[in-house]
Amino acid sequence: MDFAAVATQERLVSGSFDTKERVKQAVDIVDLVGSHIQLRRQGRNYVGLCPWHDDSRPSLQVNPERQSFKCWVCDIGGDVFSFVMKIEGVEFREALEMLAERAGITIQQPRKPSATPVVSGESAAAADSGPSSKRALLQAMAWAEKQYHDCLLNQPEAEPARRYLAHRGITAESIEQFGLGFSPLQRDWIVRQAESGVDAERHRHRARLLETVGILARPAEGGSPYDRFRGRLLFSIRNAQGRPVGLGGRVLPELGSASPAKYVNSPETPLFSKSKLLYGLDLSREALRKTRTALVMEGYTDVIVAHQYGFTNAVAVLGTALGESHIRLLKAHADRIVLVLDGDEAGTKRANEVLELFVAQQADLRILTLPEDLDPCDFLHKYGSEAFADLLANRAVDALDHAFAAKTRGLDLERDVHGASQALEDLVSIVAKAPRLRHDTTRDNRFREEKILQRLAARFRVAEAEVRRRLTLLRRQAATRATTARPAVAPAGEPAERPADTLDAWQREFLELLVAHPESLPLIRQRLPTERLAAGVCRRIFETSCRLSQQGVRPTFDRLMLEFDEPEFKNLLVDLDEGRQAKRRAAHEADLEALLEALAKTWNGKEVERQRPAQLAALREGGLDANQQAELLQAVLRQERNRQGISQPTDG
Fold first, then answer.
1. Domain 15-122, CATH 3.90.580.10 — does that match?
2. pTM here?
3. How many other CB atoms sit within 10 Å of the CB of residue 650?
4. What fold, for 123-272?
5. Which of 155, 304, 404, 586 is deepest in the core (most CB within 10 A)?
């Protein structure tokens, strides 16, 4: 078989093998993963909380020797490329370009560059890839951010925005650091910037990009697109890597805007999802790493002023309620979360709304309610950083204390039996949303739940056993509801079948052997019936190994990881490699000859079982002469002897 032909499909990937190899060697997976989640050393590996599921114990493992990662709960694994593809939601080519940019490596573009870029600094590859390319969208957002930022700094029509920022005490350094901008009142201002110096077709392409990222909007009654943020001060919203992905626009009353909304954020786009982003996170990551504490505020200006006063671990949600995704994101960067609220009734209400989520996510939450109905920006300007630090140290109350105070406000716990009972029920219901204690529950989480139950029992002056009994009952009821409501099919968007799902035990053992002993490929081909491998995952990996071997390249784990760009195959290869390594550590690894003999015997058994029904049917149905029947019976006996490993009888 000419295995060189198999390379065709696998070479349809943008970017040569040499480029992929250079990029992979230049990017350390520990540094890459560690820039998204907190990692700690555990033996030879690193572990951290998985960002793709509700992880209360470190499930994500990073292997620095193999330059791979794996979450055994999610069954997600791979190398630096598949990590970026998963965490950023991009295809392989975009992940390659992002990692190359991180490593300072220039990628040769597959097409001849155009004389006119789509947006300033945009590559021809991004222009050719169309508005659906995440790279093109990121570059369009960066271009738009620069136009708005330059307008704020230099244009006369931005004077109201500059006065507002001065009134709020926001410095020129912060304006630059946070990329603040201004959109003039003219509905087509950004469109006119986009058409400057380009032909009509290029301008239409730019406009499509700007509409895709949510900067341009179309009127409901139809017509040409307009600037969604016109007449507003703009706050650039960036992802954790510091790339602009959206905008938040604040109306300026003196401009006479007819919009009733004080703030307008970007709509949901391929780049922007407000439930998965935090304002200022890109600038807070270093402080979060050092302090392990996140200050969550409500407004963009609150975050900016907090940074000015030295509280660079401050972030904010994006005009929405704090949700599960936000909490998981925060837990990846911090051990403690302080919710800083305005000192008004609305702030108290918001604290109660998010409390259940924090308990369910098993997060260490503190709540700081500011005095005098002040927001963080005004408090810091009025009283300074020392007073704010003192509040954080002495006035930030535990979430349970806050909840207790809110639920029992105005209650006489001694006389109002019904009210006290209802308050206790509400609080136990919140605790019941936390994951149930199991044998593998971490010691910290087990201790947290024990202390919560003790405190509730003491506060309400009831037996701790009664509180625990009620907790158990509520959890059982919730589990019953979850079981009956569980969907019968996989959620939309999830693959119906993964490569690993198509492998039987023999194929998995065969591939483990192939990955573990690449130097023994000729022997493997000689001893095992590889020509009978059916089309599919197993055959594709085998044929790729054979092609590499024919080219004089040993098909090692590292090389195979570079040959396949699909995350599913990378995940499977990591799974196979880790499986074989585990067997070696457990001293379950037999020698190669014994493994090959066992695999061959298993294959023979599978073949006997596969052929037996047809053979028996032929004997039952007749139509065979005596010689044919005898030959078929002899074949059945030989197959059975081979399956059982019985030597053949000799003549005489």
1. yes
2. 0.64
3. 5
4. DNA primase DNAg catalytic core, N-terminal domain (3.90.980)
5. 304
